[in-house]
# Entry
Amino acid sequence: MRDSDGSRWTEETVDLTNCDREPIHQLGRVQAYGVLIAISSDWIVRHVSTNVADLLGLSPDEMVGTPLSDHVSADAIRALQSRMQGLGRDLEQVRLFGLEVRDRDCDVSIHLSGRDVVLELEPRHAPRAGDEVSLVHPLIGRVRRRDTVEEVSAEAARGLRALTGFDRVMVYRFDPDGSGTVIAESAAPRIESFLGLRYPASDIPKQARALYKRSLLRLIADVDGETYPIVPETNPDGHAPDLSLSVTRAVSPIHLEYLRNMGVRASMSVSILRKGELWGLFACHHYGPMSVGFERRTAVELFGQLFSYELAQKESDAERAQAEEARALHDALIARVSMGGDLTESLDLVAEEIGRALPFDGIAIYSGGEYVARGHAPTREEFLGLARYLNTTPTAQVFATHEAQARYPAAAEFSKPVAGLMALPISRTPRDYIVLFRDEVASEVVWAGNPDKPVEASGPNGVRLTPRKSFEAWRQTVHGQSRRWSRAEIATAEALRVTLLEVVLKIADEANRARKLAEEKQDLLIAELNHRVRNILNLIRGLVSQGRAEAATLEGYTRELDGRIAALARAHDMLTDGAWSAASVKEMLRTEAEAFADADLRQRVAVEGADAALEPTGYTAVALVIHEMMTNSCKYGALSVPEGRVEVSLDREEDGALTIRWRDRFGPVVRAPTRRGFGTTLIERSIPYELKGEAELSFAPTGVEGRFVVPARFVRAAPDEGASAPSPAASEAAGPLEWDGLALVVEDNMIIALDTSDMLEDMGATVRMAGTVAEAMAVLEADAIGLAVLDVNLGDTNSLPVAEALAERGVPFVLVTGYGDGEITAAYPPAPVLRKPYAPDEFRARIAEVLG
# Structure
């Protein structure tokens, strides 16, 4: 906030230790890309920024103290009041897009600040083609397919950059000491990489981190952009308006100077939360001004929230895997040391099992005054001093540090110096321990500048913080530290501590109470599990209630239901394996027979006739009928006896329809059922009802027979029928294909472009993406492209100019289209054509074809 004479800036901050909802920043100005009005609960204007007054064609003095209804329409007031009903303790901000203010469309953000309602207006950006939010879920789907935190973060950085267009997007993770590391990055070509750099804690102060937890997105459109004052500067009670959660709030000059020192003109940060705490940030940089519209920022916030969820899922999965390992360790230790004897006598066994889950360089057990050790561990005399130090740590929990010499300096003087230790208390009084030791790992940390001198206290306007100016990599070699104990390792150690405390030492009273508590927890878990299972069964029973009468028992009903769901799942797998294209009927029969896991049974199902493929719209209905026929034959028919067999014939009719005939042979004598169960109803009605085909089921004494006719519109030639033999290039492409050149992907659909890029990168290529003809031509001028993949249709135009430019340069390319053959591809220079959607094998075949 400026001093009253406007001479200099200061920044007001408060300690959040006991008042985490107090204002963190009160800069009494707003940025150029947004405007703001603060009004009281009776809708009287109390504050207005000068640029919103300009927007309304008034002076600030003419607005302050007047009803808001004097400046916006009654419809706009009603819209604002309606959206404000959603504000509450769990929702601090609501938004309204396209609100008309003085004949101009504005996007509005609304939040409460004490007794005030803060309205932030931004002139509406022209929305990008398509729904901004609709892009988020496909991008998150790509993130979900990754495994590790680093891979998930890298994909997220790539997706967010594609969504926003920033020059660089980084995933910045906070370390326990408050510093942060760039663990993932996506940057435009020829942009300096910050990947792997570490930043001191002072770069993002605690007050700023507290704000990031409440306000999830912060945008600076231009570090040199003009700012506008709030009029008046204070309320009648003398307090400045609280702009802590305002998106348009001006930024501290210190932070702007920090960005200028980096050469950044625009930035955006998106909070990444983990269990309500700040895990890290998406840090976005642009080397020119960058204004991101409100709707796109909303999509970015949604992306950040969904990424936080996916991150939590990945970390939870890893923790669950570690918990499984801890349980395995528990069982192994119980089996090895619960047969009796002193714990110290079992050190070798304990060390062997613990080492499988918790890597260490030395181990020691101190129990009942006895001390034994193996590996890189201190002597008894050295350990007794360490034990006195450990006695000062919190009871009944694991103590772990990767810098033991900083915590307990005598550790540096041990006969075998240790750098890291983990102590597991295995009794309460007196304190006994199992302690794991780790050796020093001298590591090189790459900082973004010298971390010991992050700021300087100087400046022309008196004493003030001056951001550091150097961001060059500064390397520091760290000694006296071991590899960090991970959170999962500490959780495993906690589980191990409980095991040793409750079972290995056999403290009877503690063990009895623990067993009783474990039994109570188990009973609660069983009751909760039973409750949830019943809820799930009730849901499924409601969905398939028509089949309830067919089974005499719950077990029978469950078995039939499971079989039907499994059949549909198998059908779905076959369709998805084929890129959701027509799938083989013979493969369906083979898969269904294999589902019964009986090799002899599979050999007794004979299929005659030429194979055919069914479209996805008809495949699942036929698959369910085949499943019911196979199930009935296994339970009651030919496949229920060793000598029985099933004969299936496939015949294509003149009109293209497919007739499937089913015959049970050499099975038990068949009698027609006295009633029609749900399974029989599925067999007789699914194909006629869903596909408008035919179904006949007869119960001859020699065996059940069925005749099913699938209309021609659902039937296609099988993959091995009517298709020409693959070219040598296609055959070679079925295997690994390697090409390490520079490729261009021209595609206006971002998700398809990213998937195509992935396939090219899997071959070893470096990829440039372009969504328009102009972008593609710019890439061709700047880079030596060796291969291209062109979408034929790019919105309102096509990629023909790019194809002609590639042909002129002699660059091979593949055309991609979602339409059938037509004149549009005929106008292009000769090139192979891929039909959407396409499988990776087909894609590699076309690439191999153009590469020769």
The CA atoms of residues 162 and 750 lie 7 Å apart. The mean pLDDT is 77.
